[in-house]
């Protein structure tokens, strides 16, 4: 304590700049490193808290950023702690923590800027968090260091990499290309199978209109299903963590897209080819259409779709806002439109406007400025309401979308950056 | 004065940096702290204006920011006062005020930047202003410190918090959830009551088409109304300032949404169930539809809707601009369209285009790019005008909306920040 | 010369920082102030180029910004002149000019930033340029200082201010309000005069359908015209520069809006009330509709409309780009659409698509996403082209509009700033 | 080595600021300039690595930026290398390279900022890269220095400049104007030739409807074709590199636009004027319509169109994303819409919805909010899907377009800057 008091007349040399060490400073910043200095009983204890001490000039040396310290001194004098504009926000935070302050003591506006900055940088400083955040790829960093003792595991690792990392080897690229081709083929078959000409051709070949599938399209379908099943099974077998595997969104979609085929085959088998069930089988047609979600498998290979997925995950709050806006506006405008166009009419004729739910269709088509023209107001009051509805629709829809844009741009840059780093890492191996 | 003149050869030490104290400096900055220094008669008087004075080195010490002072010195020399880029704008303003200058002496562009910055930060530095600005929540900071002497007031305070702050306790959360559920139920009943099937069902039950309400929906309606009335009354009773309570927008909406039910019940009671009035009662239907505004009660619980409300309040000027743009464009285009499509036709047939107000409908539907297709120009001149109208509509509508976007983003961040702070405050209690 | 050589070993003290004065520096910056220093023959000559010279320490003093000079020294050493980030760009330019360099020696990217900055600030530093730039208001600064010797001119000045500056006095505000009311009344009369009910009413009063004007609307029209004529004449009489007055856009619109009435009255007078000419008088109806442009007179009183006007003036280049984009896209898409929908059809039936100009109507309505539904492609090739046309329309139209937005925001802030300054100036008078 | 060790106690003077030269510094930055200093055996060797050495004060002088070095010292101490905020990012990179570090050692966020900055500036620092990047103009800088020995080449150079640089001389401007006029004339002829009145006129003149070209339009067409052929041939003859010339996009368009005329003339000649082929000649009509691409020749003279071209080249990745988004959304929504509107209907009647490809037309027209109204869902499920489709269409389309906007703005500024520099260069010659 005695020694500490002697110190109070000394100077602090922070990064080459000298600051007088006044009792004032210690009083105003009670919890910081300086107050501990003051309590030091000996020189050796002192050196735990500073980098050097020059007894002659009575000077304490700190190898820290001088600008940051001058802002902290200003804080002690004027009571407002602000970010030093000439420093990186994160460096400044480091300095604050070193001197025993934390970010809560910053002015509100500076604190907000620091938060913003930390959000921006988070994914780059802790990339493993990002990986687990959207789980599109496997965390190779985490498991890469494992010791695969036997040959079998080495093989599994090779297969895993071939399937999960399209750029890891030539075989992986061929596999990825094949996968994309199979998706596209199955989509083309699905689309063409609904064309009238194709259907009549298939019907002619089979002699009746019993089935929507002609023979060749049925064959192609089976091959695609076979491929996807094999791919999905293999990827499941070689994955490290089976439990985590089935929870990944892209894998869930895989299963949802493959399962219906087997269910419909099973139903056909159980009920017989010509049973009543299959003819009018609404459920079977719906199941069959689930196959369209195979398209989302393309997300494995296109940066744009991955970005979209990540954006949707991050913007669920903004999506909800969009939904609430549209919902509230739809309810209010449709109720009033129904009243003005139908309810106030002594002899209501416009049967399109008879109920609020059917007026909702008009509202959503007008707010989004689509305007098919199947419904439109004809009364003067209804038209005024229509104008207000359209203009407020433009404003309302655009507001939350602005947020989604910003998030999309951010996600895109992140994924692009990571992808280019992965590539670079691959090349340097 | 003599002493002051001696001073003129001394140096100013501002935040560790030395500046020569020339008469020149004083001449150019006549109203500032320095000129007062110059007029000091003794050293004790001098110390009122500076932090320290070293007689030996003839040096005046100021514990202020050296960068800011160097900019002020530059002002004295070159006549242009600019913001120091390496400082927070608000800190710099503090320094200016200390030295006896004010922001009006800044260069115009710097002044604009300072204004902008102050606008950005205003709500954070003076949060109480913000609260009263949009009045969605009660000013707890202002009244929180009050001394509630008796138990009764303590109870009222608890009830008030339960109703006004959805996150304050478990009971408050249950209440908020119940409130949202009641709003949704009443909306669903309102919508379904207009469905033809439902109406015929209700009519079948009652034997005639006299009433639009079937028995169960009438019951649900009564329960909802009862709940809302009770909630509104309680909140009114426990509010601090009754006068301020009824002026808050959300409460006004509450009253507007509840009152019509009682009015219609009253009218029914006065005129009798089967009276002529009620059958064709246009006013009653309108009053009934007022209930749709209950939806706006959701704003209490959704950040997005609060943001929208705050945005609308702040952007009333931009809204007006949007209105003026649309109005002027509508008048000009509809007048010319009517002339080209109807007025110049020797034998006018297109009765849709007969008057300017009906042409307005076409203009608003075209400018917003809805395009129902119920009206469209057929003459060549009319089509050219139509193209111009559509393109200028896209430009005109988007211009003021850009401002509304920016305001929305700003409002969203503010409310989010405050909400997270409220939560944090709650947790730390 | 000899003296100069002695100098070469001295130091430069710029704003308190010392720089060695090497021959190297002079060699690399041959045209600057320093080389002139070097050529000085005596100390007195030397003091013309620097602020002070200390013979003892052989030091030259300059009261300039030390950071800027250190960047200039860096330029001499490394050959790249960059803006000092810690300074205002305009201050830095001042320093450059002082030392005898100009902005052309800056690195290209810094030069661009400086240009941008100067563009941003231009209007604020030279407000008189801005005034003459869009000419909505009279340049009071320029003429304000004139000496109006006699009372008559003082009166004229008062009237001029009353008419031109709506906020200058109570009388001016009343005048402005009256003017807005007259515009709105005349617009309402113009609109209602086309309503069928009103027309039949007017016709009933006059016994035939000869005139579109009923008696009361004719009266209101005359009063409005009288007011506008009087206002315009007075403003012309009290204006300083008659020639400049008639070239201002808002005055041109005034004249264009008033003149048609007198022309039509003249024509009626010359040809007689019942002449053949007036009955089918196409030109008269067109002239009458010119009156709609009175609405633009509102621009005098609404900041939003002034902003729009200024934006249109500044963005004529972007408007042209928009026009060229729309024109080129319209030509290409309409030609191909006509070919695909009509030209390739062996038995062409779709008469809507018969010619390229009529296909243009479809293209503009599709590109702007209006989609009335009066024309749409039916062939597969036409629909593919339609999809491409719509998507490229969205992209093409939005690109130049982005620029117009930015310009609008800029103009809005400028006018708002000026308007608030005018108000402030008025209050402080 | 011995000498190096003595050095370890000395100080480094970087740009006037002193730093202690500790062994610590060398240990942490092993590959840098400092470690080489440490290995120097003599003073002369030392001076290769620093600017000066003062034996007395044991001080090493470096004429470098002191701020940058202080950041490098901070790196050695705290292990995080960050950009100095008070310096231009590119200057800082220069400093890093001087001291023997490279940009890979920067923190990730700073590295990203540096990359961004370098991308922004790249085109300005290496203008020749930009030229070859989009190849609209010839690289005059590259070839400008060539020695054209004989007069013939001088002439060719003059002609080349006249054609390729519209602003280079009066003749060039006349040529450019003529070229634009010819393009516009040929477009007008092409458009009017499809007008019914014009066709009947032409048919009347020729006595039958054999040809779509009337005599005068045929003549104008031949003149235009002649002009374009001559221009294209001349420009080919005087170009330096014939191979590069035919690969430039604008020249490819030229050839594609001219060739069809000669092919059709050739076909007419071979098959005879009245042959069956020409009458129904679908291919000939398609070839004829290729002429519309002459419009793209205007890109030579309009900055806006050049910007568009450059944007499309740079944004091919974003365009692809847009395509993938639209494609995936179209497939999913059209499949489900077909199912809901047609597939689930026991007695399908809506023949518009019979196949997925025809439902695609509805999806693209709805997602872009055009909404012609030729197809719209009528079932409740279909309408819900329609609402989702429209809202997601608005979001999906806008996301990649945001990127295209930013790129367009960037391209526009670059081309404008270059164009103004070219003009300035021309004037100063």
From TrEMBL, chains A, B, C, D:
GO cellular component: voltage-gated potassium channel complex
Transmembrane stretches, start-end: 170-195, 250-272, 292-312, 319-339, 354-372, 384-408
Pfam family, one: BTB_2
Keywords: Cell membrane, Ion channel, Ion transport, Membrane, Potassium, Potassium channel, Potassium transport, Transmembrane, Transmembrane helix, Transport, Voltage-gated channel
UniProt cross-references to SUPFAM superfamilies, sorted A to Z: POZ domain, Voltage-gated potassium channels
Keyword Ion transport: yes
Subcellular location: Cell membrane
Origin superkingdom: Eukaryota
Membrane topology: Multi-pass membrane protein
Domain Potassium channel tetramerisation-type BTB: 11-109
Name of the molecule in the record: Potassium voltage-gated channel, subfamily G, member 3
Species per Swiss-Prot/TrEMBL record: Neogobius melanostomus
Lineage of origin: Eukaryota, Metazoa, Chordata, Craniata, Vertebrata
């Amino acid at each position: 304590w005695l020694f500490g008091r002697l110190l109070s007349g000394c100077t602090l040399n922070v990064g080459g700049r000298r600051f007088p060490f006044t009792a004032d400073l210690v009083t105003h910043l009670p919890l910081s490193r300086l107050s501990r200095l003051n309590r030091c009983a000996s020189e050796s204890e002192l050196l735990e808290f500073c980098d050097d001490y020059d007894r002659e000039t009575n000077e304490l040396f700190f190898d820290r950023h001088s600008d940051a310290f001058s802002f902290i001194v200003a804080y002690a004098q004027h009571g407002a702690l602000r970010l030093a504009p000439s420093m990186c926000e994160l460096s400044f935070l480091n300095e604050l923590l070193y001197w025993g302050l934390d970010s809560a003591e910053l002015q509100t506006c500076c604190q907000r800027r620091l938060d913003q900055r930390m959000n921006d940088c988070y994914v780059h400083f802790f990339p493993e968090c990002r990986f687990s955040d959207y789980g599109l790829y496997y965390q190779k960093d985490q498991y890469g260091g494992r010791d695969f003792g036997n040959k079998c595991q080495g093989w599994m690792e090779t297969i895993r990499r071939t399937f999960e990392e399209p750029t890891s080897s030539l075989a992986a690229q061929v596999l990825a290309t094949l996968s994309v081709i199979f998706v596209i083929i199955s989509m083309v078959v699905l689309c063409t199978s609904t064309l009238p000409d194709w259907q009549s051709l298939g019907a002619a070949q089979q002699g009746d209109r019993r089935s929507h599938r002609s023979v060749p399209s049925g064959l192609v379908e089976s091959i695609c299903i076979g491929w996807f099943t094999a791919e999905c099974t293999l990827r499941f077998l070689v994955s490290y963590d089976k439990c985590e595997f089935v929870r990944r969104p892209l894998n869930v979609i895989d299963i949802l897209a493959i399962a219906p085929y087997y269910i419909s085959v099973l139903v056909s088998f159980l009920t017989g080819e010509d049973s009543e069930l299959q003819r009018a089988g609404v459920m079977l047609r719906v199941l069959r259409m689930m196959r369209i979600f195979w398209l989302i498998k393309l997300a494995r290979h296109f940066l744009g779709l991955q970005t979209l997925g990540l954006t949707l995950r991050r913007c669920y709050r903004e999506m909800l806002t969009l939904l609430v806006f549209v919902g509230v506006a739809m309810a209010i405008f449709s109720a009033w439109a129904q009243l003005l166009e139908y309810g106030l009419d002594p002899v209501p004729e416009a049967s399109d406007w008879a109920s609020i739910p059917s007026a909702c269709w008009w509202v959503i088509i007008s707010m989004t400025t689509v305007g098919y023209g199947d419904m439109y107001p004809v009364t003067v009051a209804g038209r005024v309401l229509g104008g207000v509805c359209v203009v407020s629709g433009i404003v309302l829809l655009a507001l939350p979308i602005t947020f989604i844009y910003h998030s999309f741009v951010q996600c895109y840059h992140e994924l692009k950056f990571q992808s280019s780093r992965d590539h670079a890492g691959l090349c340097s191996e």
